[in-house]
Specification:
Layout (H helix, E strand, L loop, with lengths): L3 H5 L1 H18 L4 H5 L6 H14 L5 H6 L4 H5 L6 H18 L3 H18 L5
Helix pairs in contact: 2-4, 2-7, 7-8
Length: 126
């Protein structure tokens, strides 16, 4: 059985996706609320998302090997995540997937999975 990690193109492609995601967040004004929620330095966030996505997509478990179970909701509770932040995260990730050339069928599957997770991560109604 082929994993999403293999379909996306392995670690190199996941790295490209994460880099483009955070570059867009930094560059595009439509993601300003999302960018503001990440603080001044994105180096740590880039690394952790890369490690997380590798394992989440069915590749190496870099994140869990370092930190244990992701406990996403708990780890994100200190940050305000409302509808606006959720929607900006999803739009930014979708734009990044498109720009790095994620396979369209996989992109559609990931959009749905990301949307479910992002909605679950909300901790405010605004």
């Amino acid at each position: 059985m082929t994993t999403p990690f293999e379909v996306i193109g392995g670690e190199e492609k996941v790295h490209q996706l994460v880099e483009r995601f955070y570059d867009l967040m930094d560059l595009e004004p439509q993601y300003k609320d999302l960018r503001a929620a990440h603080g001044t330095d994105l180096v740590n966030a880039r690394q952790k998302l890369y490690w997380f996505l590798c394992g989440w997509l069915g590749g190496p478990s870099h994140y869990e090997d370092r930190f244990g179970h992701p406990r996403l909701r708990m780890r994100h509770m200190p940050f305000r995540i409302g509808i606006r932040e959720r929607d900006q995260w999803l739009a930014c990730m979708d734009q990044a997937m498109g720009e790095v050339g994620v396979d369209e069928a996989l992109r559609a599957r990931l959009k749905e999975s990301f949307a479910n997770t992002a909605d679950w991560m909300r901790n405010t109604h605004g």
